Amino acid sequence: MILRRAVELLISLFLIASATFFLLAAIPGDALSAQTNRLPEQARKQVYKNSGLNKPVMTRYVITMDNMVHGKFGESIVTPGQTMTKVLKEKLPASARLGIQQMLFGIPLGLIMGVLAAIYKNHWIDRFVTVLSLLLMSVPSLVIGLLLQSYFGGKLGWFPIIGWPEGNQLWWGGWSYTILPTLAGGIGYIAGYARLLKNSMLDVLGSDYIQTAYAKGLSGRSVILHHIIRNAFIPVTTSLPVSIAFGITGSVFVESIFVIPGVGQFFVQALTNRDVPIVLGETVLLAALYIVTLFITDILYTVIDPRIKLYES
């Protein structure tokens, strides 16, 4: 099973990297066209030769794949000397802290709201959670972030509008800079996980074994904790690792509007500039995290519900 997953991981990464490379190559222009338009023809050719963009697409593809196999994605074409290693070292801490804070704020609150909505079905609590979840899910994090900036940062002046902690405060400190971005991104987790757990719990509540548990004289608290919530958490287990993987690699919209020097904002810049080595590196990294989290999800299934077998005979 593990060997099969490892092979699937390698094949998936190869296909994703290949698709990303050819899609970027198919777009008219390149990373150097805007910078070299006013250069003399001889100088322009030399710049393209130094970057390797003068070679045919298939030649560049073979070179890129060979470097990727050895863990090398090359230097940035737009910013010479910038590599994926440097990008992760400089940008990932900000994105990781932002993502962790958003998840610690949004996911527990969303799960609590989902439990309450399922337990108090058709009560005002259920209606409140349902309406709030729909409202929060329908408003993009970009809009929420701009509203928070305008009111709490601009009108009230309680928090900084842009910026992020640096230096010794990169991981712990500078909290005033992190509150608005955390709220802007965490609200999506609240809505998503509240609806997910509520719907899952309602499905479990209608099962025969729940009625059997009540018939045996088990208390409502015992049934909810040991039967309903545990079985209802299986869909949550599917979403949680994926949320973690995407959370720590950066939120594009939130990082952009709050000018956070993270991976998400840098990825948008690299994609706009068609900086192939950086775009390819970040795409493969995100894909690898996503596939690994799917494998972790399969393992967590067996922990939550022993009836699910990871290894098939």
TrEMBL record:
- Superkingdom, natural source: Bacteria
Localization in the cell: Cell membrane
Where are the membrane-spanning stretches? 100-120, 132-152, 172-192, 240-264, 284-304
Check the UniProt entry and state the signal peptide residues, or none. none
The record's listing under PROSITE patterns reads: ABC_TM1
GO biological process per UniProt: transmembrane transport
Pfam families per record: BPD_transp_1, BPD_transp_1_N
Protein name according to UniProt: Oligopeptide ABC superfamily ATP binding cassette transporter, membrane protein
The lineage is: Bacteria, Bacillati, Bacillota, Bacilli, Lactobacillales
